[in-house]
Amino acid sequence: MPHPASRPHNRLLALVPPAGRTALLGLLLLAATACGPTTISEFSARAYEQATSLKVEALALMDKATAPYAEHADAVQHLKTELEKAYEFAKGRPENEISARQWRILIDPDRDLLGGFLADWKEQSAFSATFVEEKKTQIARAFDTIIELESGKKKPDEVRNSP
């Protein structure tokens, strides 16, 4: 049996920086579902607005993570509540499993995106400005993946007029 690193897909994955793997996973999920009988929900202006607004709110709050968590605990709790609402909205829409999974990955406190950042901030109290900027870039990309998926969905009138 060949060594796992010698497999072509493992060598290719090694070329992708860790920050880009989340976006790559999202694209692969989209490609996989595009080839099968699964359909995707139609565009929702509410979902798009939630994602863009929460991106701005999250990144602004992350700027404050150089200060002690305790000073911003209420704002963090408010953001987490709004993120959960967005996830529940995505989860409740028919044929919207991909978007719901992206929200869950973003907000999961045991992962390395926004949920993990907020959990680590609470545990560590504050971060360096350099670390915050690096995480903001990564988390902005994750939000962009959610936003791009939503904006790429067919509008309701396009769904009715398609063959």
Give a verbal description of the structure.
The chain is mainly alpha-helical and 163 residues long. It is 71% helix and 0% strand. The protein has eight helices and no strands. The protein has helices at residues 8-15, 18-35, 45-62, 73-92, 97-107, 114-124, 129-151, 156-161. The chain starts with 7 loop residues before the first helix and ends with a helix. Residues 1-13 have low confidence and may be disordered.
Précis, in short:
This protein has helices at residues 8-15, 18-35, 45-62, 73-92, 97-107, 114-124, 129-151, 156-161.
Q: From the helix content, strand content and strand pairing, which structural class follows?
A: mainly alpha
Radius of gyration: 18 Å
β-strand percent reads under 5%
> How confident overall, as mean pLDDT?
84
Please render the helix and strand layout as text.
Layout: H1 8-15, H2 18-35, H3 45-62, H4 73-92, H5 97-107, H6 114-124, H7 129-151, H8 156-161
Features:
163 residues, mainly alpha, 8 helices, 0% strand
